[in-house]
Design goal:
Length: 276
Amino acid sequence: MVFVVHCINAIVRMIPGIIGGTLIYHAVGKFRHMAVLPTCIALLMLIFYAILWITGTTVEEATQNGWINESAESQDWKHTWDFLRLDKVVWSVLPSQIGTLLAMISVVTLSSSLDIAAIEIELKRPLDYNHELTTVGISNIISGMAGGYTGSYIFSQTIFSLRMGIRSRLMGYVIAVVSIIAVVIPFNVLSYIPNAFFGSLLMLICLDLMFEWLIDVRSKMTSAEYAVVIATFGLLQVFGVEFGILAGVVVYFVLKKMGYAVGREENKTSHTPVSS
């Protein structure tokens, strides 16, 4: 009974994010303007806090009820590097982690290449992969030396910006400034952002990727290629990302070996096995 109540409460908290993300997706698609997405995000925050005000609910109560994530108290940004203690590193363990380090490097390199490919497709012009990967590499070196994490392009944000007509580098500088402000302010911003906000953005990205790569792409592929797409999507759900991708590659080679039209060198108008 307790489990059922917990599931119902979880579903209720999911609904605002699902509705919000769906509405934003349609708004961004219909009104292609750079102000649409920020306006929708601002409206989400306004509606949430308007409901709190109408119902007489405090932020603390909303946090206790699960509508806002409970975040740790914000520390002074100047103490960020206090925990970066190289003298506490057990260097003798490093050799045993070489395999993990190489795997991480490979994953970051692959994901960065996929990010560049996604941006390249949206731009409809080729990018210099060596230049872009060098940029990612230098950024990661600087981040690592400063005690940060590995990372790559936020391709979803880049693509959304392109679709809204933003071509200026000013956006990058604005994001950098806002990020710095979020770090140095003396309180935790996440303590005031509702979970529905994050849910809406995730739902927006989900719908955009699902429609683009599972529905809209159908007219650009042969039946065999589309079968690879659908099969890989299903395998990802069953086996996870790593093994799902490997299984999808196996499906690709099996269909190719059987003579189906898959790959750029094949006839894109053929939806039947290629005769030998």
